Amino acid sequence: MDYRDMLAIAYAEAQSGFDEGGVPVGAALFDADGNLLGRGRNRRVQDNDPSVHGETDAFRKAGRQNNYRDKILVTTLAPCWYCSGLIRQFNIGTVVVGESANFEGHLDWLREAGVNVIEMHDEKCTALMKQFIEVSPHIWFEDIGECDQCNLESTP
Ligand SMILES: [Zn+2]
């Protein structure tokens, strides 16, 4: 399985999230041989739970692992501070990023910690997130913790 195949799984999760009316960020965790350990998606809207990001969902679905340095976390969008913290906390060795055009994340902070960051600049990931931000800007700004840019009182 190459990175593009891995990203396709994360993208399928993001697409499911979009179809559910949620934030379309999907992720998956793989072992060094490319075996899928867990996959998931942002479910802030679906579960009314702001702690379920794509990365944290995939991480939790994968269950306990005794070592993360040889693991590969694939995500459709550059990780936020919360998920970047998870990556550093557990020493995940490789992070594959679908796109960082809609949200640049903190990739240098990950690289500083020795994380192997691979940017895919994927057009499908970029287009899906762009569409979501246009349709649901208030949910997007809520998700990235910039509620001053949205008006939560006037939106569902
Ligand atoms: Zn996150």
From TrEMBL:
Its main location: cytoplasm. GO terms for biological process: nucleobase-containing small molecule metabolic process; pyrimidine-containing compound metabolic process. GO terms for cellular component: cytoplasm. The keyword Metal-binding applies. GO terms for molecular function: diaminohydroxyphosphoribosylaminopyrimidine deaminase activity; metal ion binding. It holds the Pfam family dCMP_cyt_deam_1. Residues 1-118 form the CMP/dCMP-type deaminase domain. Keywords: Cytoplasm, Hydrolase, Metal-binding, Zinc. Pathway: Pyrimidine metabolism. It is found in: Cytoplasm. Homodimer. This is tRNA-specific adenosine deaminase.
